[in-house]
Write a structure and sequence with these properties.
- The protein has 451 residues and is of the alpha/beta class.
- The protein has two domains: 182 residues, 3-Layer(aba) Sandwich (Glutaconate Coenzyme A-transferase), CATH 3.40.1080.10; 240 residues, Glutaconate Coenzyme A-transferase.
- 29% of the residues lie in helices and 20% in strands.
Length: 451
């Protein structure tokens, strides 16, 4: 028996025993995204239900589904749940009043643990099974795991055989010697989602964007129907020499890569590699990422660092938003008190593209949305509802895109911004927006009249 095999056996425990490690008053952290320990979470939930624990604080981000441990304590008598970026399940828990938001930039989260703003007694982390060299690969999410491992008093890994083994440029795995306990899970398939079909409106937005993407550009794309449509258009158009430096690796990148559009040879940072910090999408994406030397995961403080992003020329950052106000402020995380997600890395990449030589930052959204009652509202608004979180300040907003066109705001005065934004608002709301702009003293007689 090898040294690694012997140590592995000594550290191997059950999921129930892993949950038993927690003591009342502990601060525990789950790996974020796909790295959440779904198997162990169920055993922790049982201890919560049986009232064996009190004053537990759990921190994670974008939990896949709904945490059983959090749901087991609907009155928050035993566990407090903090989260810097919501998944749909986290959003439900927040609406129930049992999930707190941590305002943050994704690139800054490592410092929360490095400087002890968030204490960490036990880290529970889902990984691949141990490889022949004694390493547990983080799979789909590099993010800030290294900082968690270095600051946790106890490290517990939950292995899952369905996790892709993702090659990295830095800190993509933890060695057995740094792990205190190992739990072999039931190997339930990790969560995946098929690409969302683009709506007709999103296809129009994608049509605008493809016209401003040049050969050799370095792209950052998010998830959703519009990025999927844009990726398909790029693949069809055969735009060559593209590079990828992105927070999130998504299915549209696979389409572009297979079409021969991505070479990563024109990048100045991480040349030759698709650089990312986490991936989420379909099984096709996961198969593409598995042991693929074209891809390299890096910690989020590197991938999302605006100073590093901007070292690439011609960065094109494409992100979604919920609303934009007439001054050019962007909200991509909340509407009033209703919290939807988080800042994530949007502002990181907006800054990176803004500073990049030849860079372009696009904030994209449909011009309207329809609520559950069937009433239509403009996404371009005079001002945000009270308590709305500002994701991108007006000083850093460059391009805003709807199905009615692209508004370029960089270098424009407030009244020129208002005119540009109203130009791309839905026609049914333009006159109302003009009236509000006049009230705000950002509309001049020289502005064109709206029909």
């Amino acid at each position: 028996m090898s040294i690694n095999s012997k140590q592995y056996t000594q550290k191997l425990i059950t999921g129930e025993k892993a949950a038993d490690l927690i003591k009342s008053g502990d601060e525990i952290v789950y790996g974020g995204f796909i790295l959440a320990p779904i198997f162990i979470d169920g055993f922790i939930a049982k201890r919560i239900q049986e009232k064996e624990l009190s004053n537990i604080r759990l921190t994670t981000m974008c939990f896949p589904g709904i945490s059983q441990a959090v749901a087991a304590d609907p009155k928050r008598e035993h566990l407090i749940y903090d989260n810097p970026f919501f998944s749909p399940g986290d959003r439900i828990l927040h609406e129930m009043g049992i999930c707190n938001h941590i305002p943050s930039l994704f690139s800054e989260i490592p410092t929360f643990f490095q400087h002890k703003y968030i204490s960490l007694d036990i880290l529970f982390l889902r990984t691949t099974p141990m490889d022949d060299h004694g390493f547990f690969n983080y799979g789909l999410a590099n993010t800030f795991i290294r900082y968690l491992i270095e600051n946790a008093k106890i490290v517990v890994v939950e292995t899952n055989t369905t996790m892709p083994y993702c090659l990295g440029g830095l800190d993509e795995a933890v060695h057995l010697s740094e792990v205190d306990y190992i739990v072999e899970s039931d190997n339930a398939p990790i969560i995946s989602t098929d690409p969302v079909p683009a709506s007709d409106t999103e296809k129009i937005i994608a049509d605008y964007l493809i016209k401003v993407i040049d050969e050799g550009a370095c792209l950052q794309l998010g998830i959703g129907g519009m990025p999927n449509a844009l990726g398909a258009l790029i693949a069809q158009a055969g735009i060559k020499g593209l590079g990828i430096h992105t927070e999130m690796l998504v299915d549209s990148v696979v389409d572009m890569y297979e079409a021969g559009c991505i070479t990563n040879r024109n990048k100045d940072v991480f040349t030759g590699k698709i650089a990312y910090t986490f991936g989420f999408g379909s099984q096709k994406l996961y198969d593409f990422m598995d042991k693929n030397p074209a891809c390299a995961s890096y910690p989020v403080h590197i991938v999302n660092n605006p100073d590093i992003i901007s070292q690439n020329k011609n960065v094109v950052s494409i992100n979604n938003a919920i609303e934009a106000d007439l001054f050019g402020q962007i909200s991509s995380e909340s509407k009033g008190h209703k919290h939807i997600s988080g800042s994530g890395g949007q502002f990181d990449f907006v800054q990176g593209a803004y500073r990049s030589e030849g860079g372009k930052s696009f904030i994209c959204m449909t011009s309207t949305y329809t609520d559950k009652k069937g009433e239509q509202y403009s996404r371009i608004v005079p001002q945000f509802s009270p308590a709305t979180g500002i994701t991108v300040p007006r000083t850093m907003t460059q391009y805003v895109v709807t199905e009615y066109g692209i508004a370029q705001l960089k270098g424009k005065s407030t009244w020129k911004r208002a005119e540009s934004l109203i130009d791309i608002a839905h026609p049914d709301f333009r006159n109302e927006l003009v009236k509000k702009a006049e009230e705000f003293n950002i509309w001049r007689p020289v502005n064109k009249k709206m029909d």
